[in-house]
Sequence to fold (269 residues):
Amino acid sequence: MTDKTVHEGGCLCRTVRYRVTGAPMWVAHCHCESCRKASGSAVVTWAGYTRETFEVAEGWPVRFASSPGVTRSFCPHCGTPLTYETERRPGKVDVTVGSLDEPAEFAPTAHVWESERVAWLHIADDLPRHEQTGPL
Amino acid sequence: MTDDTVHQGGCLCGAVRYRATAEPLRASHCHCKMCRRHGGVLFQTWVSFPSDRFTFVRGAPTIYPSSDIAERGHCNRCGTPLTFQYLDKREYVSVSVGSLDRPDEVTPTVHFWAKDMIPWLSMDDRLPRRTRH
Fold:
């Protein structure tokens, strides 16, 4: 039976609220330079959903074409990074686990873009580490 | 004229650029719920500079007053979270480590708000963990 659990999330200022339905297809830490820039952090953790299972419930996230074929969305009022979509994976929407209301429920199963990891960052785990996009 | 830039950085789209002419006062991880949500991350890392050694050389962040005691800045074109500043401590400004051109060149030395750290996030370092700040 399909998991229909609804998880909610949104930005810091609560202007944008979204819902995702069901378990994510995957959860991964991304160390790439673009995600670091987009989040201001050393590493961003993403949960993979689809256009059918992701829905904006309130507010109007701004969409930005961050690189060819890639669109990132964020809250224009407070800056919270929310989603990532790429033409390489049509119909998929990745959400920042940090913008979900219950991030602890979304443990990752892999690292991607290990080749760009910040040198001083060591997250101790036995998860597979893909030099680039890996399975995504 | 000597270029005394020590660190520089900016947002993903390049609309906002900054430079610092001093080494950081400190680089620190923050696990508090506000920093996590603001960055869309499991933890954030801030690098603080004396305000009089820090300038924006292109553009400026959009400021969001996130609480009674602090404000946060981001780029309004691409969303990059850029700055954090306490309202009563404007003598220094913190920038997000991911916005630095070379995040490898700073070294975080502490975890703040470790009481809010995601339970399964295992940071393999021996840095001190402050419950709050």
The CA atoms of residues 23 and 127 of chain B lie 20 Å apart. Chain B touches chain A at residues 11-13, 34, 36-45, 62, 64, 66, 72-82, 95-99, 103-104, 107-108, 118-125 (CB under 8 Å). The longest strand of chain B covers residues 44-50.
